[in-house]
Amino acid sequence: MATSPAEHPSAQPFVPETRSLRTLSEAAAACRGCALFEHATQTVFGNGRRNAVVVLVGEQPGDVEDRKGRCFVGPAGRVLWRCVEEAAIPREAIYVTNAVKHFKFEQRGKRRIHQRPSAAEIDACLPWLSAELAILRPPVIVALGTVALRSLLGRPLTIDAAREQELTLGDAHLVATYHPSAVLRADDPPPIEAALTEDLRRSWQLARREGGGARANAAAS
Ligand code: SF4
Predict the structure, then answer these.
(1) What are the b/e assignments for 89-110, b being 16+ CB within 10 Å?
(2) Phi/psi at 144 (nearest 5 deg)?
(3) CA of 85 to the centre of ligand 1 (A)
(4) Can you say how many angstroms the Cα of residue 9 is from the centroid of all Cα atoms in its chain?
(5) Confidence band (pLDDT; 50, 70, 90) for 8?
(6) 51 lines ligand 1 (CB under 6 A)
(7) What's the pLDDT at 218?
């Protein structure tokens, strides 16, 4: 007997067989794989070039992203893109996405307060991320924060522990670093931002090495 999404949440029934990121994105707009679509404004899918050599995976869209329908266009995005620039990574070499494609929040008066997605919601949304990565096949994947890392590894691991390890995911290097919102929340932001920037710089070095340079140059040209 088929189980309902409420019993066993998963995006899998909504993910089409395709090699097109646009087709995936259009299909994700209609995903009802878990309950998070009910209160969010829209699905926020990944964006960037198909030949991107560094895929940045965040947690979930925030309040601004939910309204605009784009990843990393809010306060955390400003931190991220500042670090990307500091790390000298061309934007064209990057594809950005999130582990969870709908904004989870708690309404408090007029404010929508971010809520961390549950393990079940992270797992439910994984088929979208897996489909994106299967098309992109990047040499380097960067997990921004513990939710992205949990999604990609399938198990919890702290960022501090993961930063000490050489991780891989299939043929790709998996670099774990802080989510840019950690910079915004930190009592002492500069060291967190410096670490994020350094991890991004290392990701770009790995991408240029593993991507054979040509793909990286093509993405950046
Ligand atoms: S969060 Fe993911 S699995 Fe849940 S409805 Fe949105 S796109 Fe589908």
Answers:
(1) bbebbbbbbbbbbbbbbeeeee
(2) -95, 95
(3) 31
(4) 20
(5) confident
(6) no
(7) 64
Atom of ligand 1 nearest to the CA of 28: 7
Residue with CA nearest ligand 1 atom 6: 102
Task: Give the largest Cα separation in the chain, rounded.
Answer: 54
Q: Which residues contact 44 (CB under 8 A, 6 or more apart)?
A: 61, 65, 66, 69, 70, 71, 98, 101, 102, 103
Determine the residue type at 53.
Answer: V
CATH numbers and ranges of domains, the chain: 32-220 (3.40.470.10)
- Summarize pLDDT for 46-80 with one digit per residue, the tens: 999 999 999 999 999 999 999 999 999 999 999 99
**Ligand 1 neighbour 144 (Cβ under 6 A):** no
For residues 55 and 119, the answer to whether their CB atoms sit within 8 Å is no
User: Are 128 and 45 contacting, i.e. CB atoms less than 8 angstroms apart?
Assistant: yes
Give the CA count within 13 Å in the CB-facing half-sphere of 78. Answer: 4
Q: What is the pLDDT of residues 198-216, one digit of tens each?
A: 999 999 999 999 864 556 5
User: How far is C-alpha 4 from the geometric centre of its chain's CA atoms?
Assistant: 27
- Angle at which helices 146-153 and 119-136 pack, to 10 degrees? 70
Q: Is the pLDDT of residue 4 over 80?
A: no
SS3 177: strand
Q: CA 151 from chain center: how many Å? A: 10
Q: 34 CB less than 6 Å from ligand 1?
A: yes
Distance (Å, rounded) from C-alpha 78 to C-alpha 9? 32
Residues in the chain: 221
